[in-house]
Amino acid sequence: MCGVNDWTSLADLEPSIALGPLDGRYRGAVAGLVDHLSEPALNRMRLHVEVEWFIHLCASDAVPGARPLTDEEIDLLRAIPAGFGAAGIAEHADIERITVHDVKAVEYYIKRRIEGTSLDPLRELVHFACTSEDINNLSYALMIKGAVEDVWLPAASALVAQVADMGREAKAIPMLSRTHGQTATPTTLGKEFAVLAHRLGRQVRRVEAQEHLGKINGATGTFGAHTAAAPGTDWIEVSRTFVEGLGLTWNPLTTQIESHDWQAELYADVARFGRILHNLATDVWTYVSLGYFAQATTKGSIGSSAMPHKINPIRFENAEANLEISAALFDTLGATLVTSRLQRDLTDSSSQRNIGVAFGHSLLAIDNVRRGLGTLSVNEAALAADLDASWEVLAEPIQSAMRAAAVAGVEGMEDPYERLKELTRGHSIDAEAIRTFVGGLGLPAETSARLAALTPGTYVGLAEKLVDDYLA
To answer: Which PANTHER family does this chain map to (predicted)?
Structure first.
């Protein structure tokens, strides 16, 4: 009998097989993040930061002996990150195998490309006065900013718009509420989607407003090497204008590392968005189980391998799992990155390599929820049937009307809550029972008629108006 050890080694197959699902099964849903948060994207951004620092030093006359660069020289430098592809990735890896230092390999990679050009005499401006973290913190800030603005926010915003549209479309469809899982004051289906859209939208706006901080101030944040090399230069101003010129917020006070507090703030907001989305996924899953939604299928799709009748709400279940993984990673990143022993330790280096994984699981969940919502159609008959079987929910408006009547001086309105509790709790009641009770209360004629006309399906308060007025 062939044993496991005799099987073909999957690790030796070409092309290589992904260990994780984001780079394997779910690659299509998260591919947009590769340009921003992969290891090659990190090295490409490091090249960009190094090149722009070189250009900035020359333009600001910061280092004696440096000169303004020509347009051709600037183009040559900026072509280095722009052309960083498969060959460049392999070459950088070859250099790193010798240096055993990824940022130093970036420095040598650039120097190779300016060797023998008019920039060669200025070659020591590459990585001038920099510690690795000067390059890394700016690279990560730019990568994360790009990933959020170009990939995550468009997906999240599209989801919010989709949920908001569902809220508007279903704003007038009455639905039985189920506070604590029990029958409760009716709402509308659309109002409940509007609540979720409103909550998700607030988090999106927080993410949109997030600052992305950066620093370039040397090995312990003192500009020590800078002032030793060029004491006459206003290095604080050179640093500020460089960081802000990259489109980031300048952080003037750091140790060797930029403190990463802004990252923790961002990850908390993205994780909170995910937790609200998790709430949406579980609620919709429950509505599907109650029959409030029918799910469309595609030809040939399988719901259950054993039960042919089933259409499982797998998109929402997949989203739940990925949101839980994403939130756990974002929580860990936020807790880890704000702490660094004394002036520097390297825990952040390993942690930050998982930023793409955290965003990947979030993006995958968003994709699944959007696709899941797209399969739903409202089963208004099921919603109406639930309401028609729940006349006891009218105990609330009746006792509230009795309270108002008592305040207005109407006789016989004593103990309204207790009387409605006796009528409804533990009893099955119908429209006739409600109307008989209302008719015997002695309420003013207008109030009595209004309550007698009320049904569970019309007892939705201002739900529709709330959607119209406040779902922005």
So the answer is: ADENYLOSUCCINATE LYASE
